[in-house]
Amino acid sequence: METPALEVQLKTLPNSPGVYQYYDKNGKILYVGKAKNLKKRVTSYFTKRHDSHRIGVMVKKIKEIKHIVVASETDALLLENNLIKKHQPRFNVMLKDDKTYPWICIKNERFPRVFPTRKLIKDGSEYYGPFTSFKTVNTLLELIKGLYKLRTCNYDLSEEKIRNGKYKVCLEYHLGNCKGPCEAKQPEAEYNSNIEAIRQIVKGNFKDSLQQFREQMKLHAENMEFEDAQRIKNKIDVLENYQSKSTVVNPKITNVDVFSIVSDEGYGYVNFLQLSHGAIIRSHTIEMKKKLDETDEELLELAITEIRQRFSSNSKEIYVPFKVDAGEDVRVTIPKLGDKKKIVELSQRNAKYYRQERFKQMKIVDPDRHVKRIMAQMKEDLRLNVEPRHIECFDNSNIQGTNPVAACVVFKNGKPSKKDYRKFNIKTVEGPDDFASMEEVVFRRYKRLLNEGEDLPQLIIVDGGKGQLSSGVKALEDLGLRGKIAIIGIAKRLEEIFYPGDTIPLYLDKKSESLKIIQQLRNEAHRFGITFHRNKRSKSALNTELEEITGIGEKTVVELLKQFRSVKRIKEASEKELAEVIGVSKAGIIYNHYKTKNTPE
C-alpha cells in the first residue's frame, strides 16, 4: 500500500503514548518527538500557527509520519533520546549531544560503590534506570545513604591490600557515613547484604522505606515542624512515582533484533525493533500479502530475512514470540518472562496498531475496496454463490412465553441499515414455540417483500441451531424461494454455523472478519428484539392496571405516569392531586376505582 496523504495519516494515529518521526519526500528523517497522546500532539503541528520559523519550515516538508507506541510517557522520553542520538534529525536541537539520561551504578568491585553516572561501561557493573530526572536519582541515593553506610572512596579494596594495612580510614568513617571496610572494620558479608537490599530499592521494592518516611512525616507534623514534614512528603511522592524499569532501555540486553506478527485472512503485519546496547534505535513494520494461506511462522521467517537484509543487521540473536528458522548463525530466543518478554510484547503492540491504522486508512482512501474485500471474503468463507451485499438476520424474544416478538435487522455492504429494521408481534403461535415463531416471521417478511416488489437479500441468518434453521427453510419453501436465497443458522454456544440439510456445522476462524460481521448481526438482532420485547411487556403491564379502568385511555395514562412516575404513586394520590393533571372528571373515575378496590367488604 502506498503512503497515504498526510490528512489520512493524521486521522488514523492512536491516542497512546509514544514517539513520532517526521520524514520528507525523499524518506529522510526531519524530526523526532515524544507524546503522551500521539494523535493530539502530532495533529497540533498541522492545526496551530507556529511562532518558530524553524517549525514552520519543517511542517511544509513533512510527507510521512511514523510512530512507535510505548507503554508510558517515561518510555517515550527515553526512546526519543535514543532515536535523536542515533539519527541526528535536522530539526531537533535538543538531545543531539553525547549526554544521556542518568543511571544508578552498582560497581563491579569488592565492597561495591553506588553512585550516579551518565556513562555505561561494560565491566560487569550493574546499571539501573535510566532516569528522566536527576531528582529521582538523588532521592533514591539519599534514601540509600540514610539506610546504609557505604564507602565513597575509589580504592581497590582487595583482601591482600587490606590485610597489609595499605589504607587508613578517612573523614567519612569519623563522621559515621562509612564503617571502614578499608581497615577490615566491616565484614564483607555484611557489606554485601546491604548491597542486596540496595538492589531491591533501585528495583522499586521499598515498601518498608516508604512506611518509615510516613512515620517520620507524621512525627514532624505533630511537632509543628511543617517544613521538615513537607520535605519528607516530597521524597515520598518521588518514590511512589518512581519506575524502576524501562521497556525501551535495558543495559542487560545487548545487540538484538526483535520480531513479531499479527495477521488476518489476507495479510500479515510484521514489526521489527532493533536494539543496540540495550536501547531501541529503530522500529519498522511491513505489510505482507498472503498468497497461499501461509502460516504466521512462514510469513515471519520470510520477513526476518527481508528486514535484516534491508537494514543490514548483523545481530547474532533475535527475540520472537514463537519458534522460527532464522538460519544457523542466528540464535533464536522465545522470551517467557521479564524484560525480554516485555520487549516482544512492545513489538506485538506496534504490529497491532499498524494493522488497525492500515484498515482505517483503507476505509478513508478507498471505502469501496474495503467493502469489496470483506464481501469477497464472506462469499468464500460461507461458500455462497454471490457476495452477501444485503444480509438479514432474525431473532425471537420471549420470557416464559409472554409477549412473544421477533426482530429482523438488515446489513447492507457490511454495515447496519437501521431504516430497514423490522419488528414483529407473533400472531399465529400460542405459547413459547421458537421454531413456529421463526417460521411465521420469515414467511411474513418475504411474502411482504415479494408483494411490494422489494429487493430480496442474498443471505438470511437465523439466530439458533438446526431447529430454527429448518423453520426458516420451510417458510422459504412455502414462498417458492428455497434455493433462491442462501440461509444459515448460527448457534450461540460454540459459534457453529449450520446449513440446510447438512448435519456437520462450519466453524469459522475466531479472527475472521466474516465471523465478526455475523456476530455483529446476531447481537444487533438480539438487542433490537429485546428492546421491543421490553417495551411491549411494560405497555402490557400498564394495560393490566390503568387502561382497564373504564373511561381511561392511553393518553391519560401517559400524562399520569409523566407526573407521578409509577402506578403505586397514582394509587396513593389524592383526588385533588389527580385532578391537577387530568381534570376533575377523570380524576374522580381513577380515585373512586382504587378507593372501591381497597375498601374491605
Report what the structure shows.
The structure is a single chain. The protein has helices spanning 6-11, 38-47, 53-61, 73-87, 134-147, 159-163, 171-174, 188-202, 207-222, 226-240, 296-310, 338-365, 367-381, 434-452, 466-478, 513-545, 554-564, 567-572, 575-582, 584-598; strands spanning 18-23, 29-35, 64-69, 103-106, 114-117, 126-128, 256-263, 267-276, 279-289, 317-319, 331-333, 390-399, 402-412, 415-416, 422-425, 459-463, 486-491, 496-498. By secondary structure, it is an alpha+beta fold. It starts with 5 loop residues before the first helix and ends with a helix. Helix 9 (207-222) packs antiparallel against helix 10 (226-240). It is built from 20 helices and 18 strands. It folds into five domains: 6-87, GIY-YIG endonuclease, CATH 3.40.1440; 103-244, no CATH class; 256-363, no CATH class; 374-538, Nucleotidyltransferase, domain 5; 542-597, DNA polymerase, domain 1. Helix content is 45%, strand content 18%. Belongs to the UvrC family. Keywords: Cytoplasm, DNA damage, DNA excision, DNA repair, Excision nuclease, SOS response.
